[in-house]
């Protein structure tokens, strides 16, 4: 009988190349990033602000056209601790990635948390964006290196629970 425990994993290189063509809402968001702004769109019916905007409210099914600038700081709603290495992420393990409800937005935004030990990240923690130098800005999320704690008091769960 063969020893079935001998091979426990294999490495299979996989590559995918694609071109992303942003729609009008994504273009405005990316151009906002190039200018150091986080731009969302407000639904004309439910008044929710989506960041990044997708051009329509998934709840109401109507187009969103009102541009709204939101803050580059917010509240951690949920988070995960990453312990698995990745070739294209040069971070010390473990690290934390979080859903951040930016001030002025109604849906959270996914980003890395740094400048804080991974085991101190918590729901309700206030964080702010750390931007790259302005000379390096382009129409990309990479303008923001990560988010870090602001030191403000935590936000009570009741104030963000409807945004999870
Ligand atoms: Zn809506």
Plain-language structure description:
A five-stranded antiparallel β-sheet has the order 6-5-4-7-8, with no helix packed on it. It has a three-stranded antiparallel β-sheet with strand order 2-1-3, covered by helices on one side. It has one helix and eight strands. The protein has 164 residues and is mostly beta strands. It has one helix at 24-34, and strands at 38-42, 49-50, 66-70, 73-82, 95-102, 109-113, 126-131, 144-149. The chain is globular. 7% of the residues lie in helices and 29% in strands. The structure holds zinc ion. Zinc ion binds next to loops.
Helix/sheet category:
mainly beta
Walk across the major sheet and give the strand order. Answer: 6-5-4-7-8
**If you average the pLDDT, what whole number results?**
93
**How would you sum up the major sheet?**
5 strands, antiparallel
How many E strands?
Answer: 8
Number of domains: 2
Bound molecules: zinc ion
- Determine Rg (CA atoms, Å): 19 Å
What count of helical segments does DSSP give?
1
Q: Topology as H/E string?
A: HEEEEEEEE
Which structural traits does this protein have?
mainly beta; five-stranded antiparallel beta sheet; binds zinc ion; 164 residues; three-stranded antiparallel beta sheet; 7% helix; 29% strand
């Amino acid at each position: 009988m063969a020893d079935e425990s001998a091979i426990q994993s294999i490495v299979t290189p996989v590559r995918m190349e694609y071109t992303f063509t942003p729609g009008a809402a994504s273009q405005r968001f990316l151009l906002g990033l190039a200018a150091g702004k986080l731009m969302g769109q407000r639904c004309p019916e439910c008044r929710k602000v989506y960041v990044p905007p997708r051009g329509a409210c998934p709840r109401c099914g109507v187009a969103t056209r009102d541009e709204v600038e939101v803050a580059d700081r917010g509240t951690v709603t949920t988070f995960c601790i990453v312990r698995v290495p990745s070739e294209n992420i040069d971070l010390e393990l473990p690290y934390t990635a979080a859903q951040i409800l930016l001030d002025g937005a109604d849906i959270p935004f996914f980003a890395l948390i740094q400048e804080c030990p991974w085991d101190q990240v918590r729901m309700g923690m206030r964080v702010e964006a750390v931007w790259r130098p302005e000379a390096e800005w382009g129409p990309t999320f990479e303008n923001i290196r990560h988010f870090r704690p602001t030191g403000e008091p935590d936000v009570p769960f009741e104030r963000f629970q409807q945004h999870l």
